[in-house]
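Example for tutorial group B:
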């Protein structure tokens, strides 16, 4: 019998997880990636909840753990750097999780797990899709034509192929801008995630990494969308907004100015009534971007590859449509849980005034007290479920 063939568009966490699991389930796999080569960049992501088990079933738990960023704790600091509160990080899924890893290192581990017969085409982008009765035909910008049984779109939050094929994409702008970047490490940097809040809804974060550098984040609420601006315009905007923010803001601005790894995210949730149509389905941020505010984007992306392959390998499922519906109904509660943000969370996370900041600091004090710490710990739990992962039928190695 001919092997079923999947074309996957996007080679980050979601796309590579789909490639890993469908290849193990016996499919022939072709991956298209818009970037000219494997994308190494990106900052801290974590593996939580059910994704830990998926990683274990991939045989990659130890490999990802070995890439740990070395972070041991998360603290909230004042302008002079002194600690005003410590977020709970005991257990596997605290503010600093057991599996903290840089996005590029994580993606590389999954990439390295793929056998050589998984085909990659870089600098490729889908231009046209014909969803036929018994196959899907993909035509790329370079003129390549691929026939497959299934097309999986894993192109991230700004997916163009999703927008080409699905009408009902809702984008909820959370009004928060986050800029991530790599800056030189100094002797004062330690193994803690240090988090500073300033008035006008500004945050400055410094986190250790395992590459001898420091990972920084500038984040603010109520900002205009700068994700589409060129680098000089982004830097001018940041300088204007953060120059007087205090603590290490100026150091971060100087570091970003020369960093080649700056990633701008205008936090946008993607909500869709369905993630599949015909022989096309979506995975990861392209389907349900939860944003770092919800947390767990990488965990959900990893889990989606497993659940999709399990649904497609289920001998009880008669049609492709049934399998894709099963995939969707397994994933949706996990996504809904993370996308449902507590009311007013933006005001709590990004206070504008001195009074707002003082209230926030008071609440932090209460939330991190021994009495309320269990409640605070719940806030960082994502991708959690009581349901067992669906069984998967894989080919003998
Ligand atoms: C370079 C990079 C840096 C990141 N840095 C951070 C970070 O610092 N902090 C954070 O919280 N999250 C970051 N993310 C996002 C994070 O990886 C995701 O939120 C999460 O892991 C879900 O992954 P995903 O595979 O669904 O989407 P993504 O990780 O966004 O991956 C999408 C992939 O699809 C490719 N792609 C996009 N459009 C097309 C197209 N039309 N055709 C073919 N390929 C396409 C992209 O190049 C990318 O490789 C980053 C993503 C990338 C790609």
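The residue assignment follows.
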């Amino acid at each position: 019998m001919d092997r079923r063939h999947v074309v996957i568009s996007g080679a980050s966490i979601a796309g590579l997880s789909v490639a890993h699991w469908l290849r193990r389930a016996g499919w022939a796999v072709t991956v298209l990636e818009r970037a000219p080569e494997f994308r190494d960049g990106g900052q801290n992501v974590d593996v939580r909840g059910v994704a830990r088990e998926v990683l274990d079933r991939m045989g990659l738990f130890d490999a990802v753990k070995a890439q740990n960023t070395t972070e041991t704790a998360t603290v909230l600091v004042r302008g002079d750097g002194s600690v005003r509160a410590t977020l709970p990080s005991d257990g596997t899924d605290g503010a600093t999780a057991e599996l903290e890893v840089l996005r590029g290192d994580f993606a590389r581990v999954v990439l390295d797990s793929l056998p050589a017969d998984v085909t990659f085409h870089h600098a490729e982008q889908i231009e046209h899709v014909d969803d036929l009765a018994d196959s899907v035909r993909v035509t790329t910008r370079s003129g390549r034509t691929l026939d497959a049984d299934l097309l999986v779109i894993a192109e991230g939050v700004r997916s163009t192929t999703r927008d080409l094929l699905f009408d009902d994409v809702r984008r909820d702008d959370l009004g928060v801008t986050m800029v991530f970047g790599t800056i030189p490490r100094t002797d004062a940097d330690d193994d803690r995630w240090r988090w500073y809040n300033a008035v006008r809804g500004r945050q400055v974060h410094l986190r250790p990494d395992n590459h001898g550098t420091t990972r920084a984040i500038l984040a603010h609420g109520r900002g205009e969308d700068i994700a589409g601006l060129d680098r000089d315009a982004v830097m001018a905007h940041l300088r204007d907004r953060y120059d007087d923010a205090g603590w290490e803001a100026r150091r971060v601005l100087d570091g970003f100015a020369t960093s080649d790894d700056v990633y701008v995210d205008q936090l946008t949730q993607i909500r869709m009534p369905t993630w599949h149509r015909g022989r096309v389905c979506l995975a990861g941020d392209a389907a349900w971007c939860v944003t770092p505010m919800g947390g767990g984007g990488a965990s959900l992306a990893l889990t989606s590859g497993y659940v999709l392959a399990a649904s497609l390998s289920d001998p009880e499922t008669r049609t492709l449509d049934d399998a894709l519906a099963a995939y969707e109904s397994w994933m949706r509660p996990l996504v809904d849980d993370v996308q449902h943000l507590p009311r007013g969370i933006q005001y709590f996370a990004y206070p504008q005034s001195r009074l707002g900041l003082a209230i926030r600091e008071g609440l932090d004090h209460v939330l991190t007290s021994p009495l309320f710490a269990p409640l605070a710990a719940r806030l960082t739990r994502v991708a959690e479920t009581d349901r067992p992962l669906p069984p998967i039928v894989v080919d003998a190695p």
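The chain has a mean pLDDT of 91. Compare this with the pattern of hydrophobic and polar residues in the output above.
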